[in-house]
Design goal:
heterodimer, A: about 270 residues, mainly alpha, about 80% helix, B: about 110 residues, 5-stranded mixed beta sheet
Chain lengths: ~270, ~110
């Protein structure tokens, strides 16, 4: 059952950290969090559906289907995170200018719901397949359910602690830290997408540029947390680093453009 | 004689032939999963070489081929196969495991 706990914990942790970061950002600008539960449910359904079709998916693109679909999910999430960061920045500036932001603009709800649903579909499909394997292997569903509850519970607890830490960051820098965090999360996702494509030879594979295992090992607790949150990689290749840095740069540039536009608008 | 390189068509053909040569040189290795164990559990591959690993899951239940050191993870359904490219790697030992059965499904890639 320990294996079940660990597997559910690892996947739940990735989703929980992302959700905590998003909720902290929303909390900071005072937006509602009611959309979370439906989004999670959609994600769980998506995960089940993806697991059901996984064999067929894996055979697409001459055996590269799994990686291609996962990369598409991840790149999609990067774009959604880009919109999210821009929205948080804009809303924050509007709050500062004491302008009531347009609450009838529901677009952010769809963006965030899609983000959460895709993330849970991605993690959930693996859990669904594992569950299927576990039930067929041992025949009993009790250790699976117990392990799942414990694993997800621990993941959610870590997420809750993370959320608490984030919302207690002092006011002046909290918005910058929240956005910086979301940028790093997006970059980590881009790096993961690159890794999947390298795995099926859609991107060239190269020797790693460095090995930072002497600082933080991927197998350690810190390494696992950093991997789940911002895609920490002890032995990155040049392409992986390229994806990471490019994502950070693109998000920063888009935020800067918003900043300039907001500055001009406030002179109206 | 040098004029053939000015023809884009010829250049493309030469490029495709070159790619075929390079692609054809990727060595292929097979690993089987039977009763939640890897066969072979130790696989030796040459250094600095990209290698195509075909993981054949002979079990009826799915397994996930995973390795932190190699940065690879792939779910392989029961009685199915998965293709994973590894390398180029520097000499050393790179462990991998089956995430769904990590106590038994363990192996390593030995690069020398």
């Amino acid at each position: 059952m320990l294996i079940t706990v660990i597997i559910f914990l690892r996947e739940a942790l990735e989703a929980a950290l992302l959700i905590s970061a998003l909720l902290a950002g929303l909390h900071r600008v005072g937006y509602s969090k009611n959309w979370i539960l439906p989004a999670i449910v959609c994600g769980l359904l998506g995960g089940g559906i993806m697991a059901y079709f996984l064999e067929g998916i894996s055979n697409m693109f001459e055996g590269a289907g799994q990686e291609v679909v996962n990369s598409l999910f991840l790149i999609g999430m990067v774009l959604l995170l880009n919109f999210t960061c821009i929205w948080i920045a804009k809303t924050h500036y509007q709050n500062l200018a004491a302008k009531r932001y347009d609450k009838s603009d529901r677009s952010i709800v769809y963006i965030l719901s899609a983000l959460v649903a895709i993330a849970i579909t991605h993690e959930g499909s693996e859990l669904a397949i594992f569950s299927y394997a576990a039930i067929h292997g041992s025949g009993s569903i009790v250790p699976l359910i117990a392990g799942a509850i414990i694993g997800i519970g621990i993941g959610m607890s870590v997420g809750a602690i993370f959320y608490y830490l984030l919302i207690h960051i002092p006011r002046p820098i909290s918005i910058k830290i929240t956005i910086a965090l979301l940028i790093l999360i997006a970059a980590g996702m881009a790096l993961q997408a690159a890794t999947y494509l390298i795995q099926v030879n859609w991107l060239p594979s190269q020797l790693p540029v460095w090995n930072s295992s002497f600082i933080i090992e991927e197998n350690s607790l810190a390494g696992q947390l950093l991997y789940a949150l911002i895609g920490y990689e002890a032995t990155p290749s040049a392409i992986q680093l390229g994806f990471y840095v490019t994502t950070v740069a693109c998000l920063l540039i888009s935020l800067y453009l918003v900043y300039r536009r907001q500055g001009r608008l406030s002179y109206d | 004689m040098l004029n053939i390189f000015h023809n884009k068509f010829t250049l493309t053909v030469l490029l495709l032939v070159y790619i075929q040569f390079v692609a054809a040189e990727t060595p292929v290795y097979e690993i089987e999963i039977k009763e939640h164990l890897f066969y072979p559990s130790e696989l030796e591959i040459p250094p600095n070489t990209k290698v195509k690993l075909i993981v054949l899951n002979r079990d009826p239940t799915p397994e996930e081929f995973e390795s932190y050191e190699l940065n690879r993870e792939k779910v392989i359904m029961g009685s199915a196969k998965g293709i994973v490219f590894i390398g180029p790697l520097q000499p050393g030992v790179y462990p991998f495991f089956g995430e769904f059965n990590p106590l038994t499904a363990q192996g390593k890639i030995v690069v020398k």
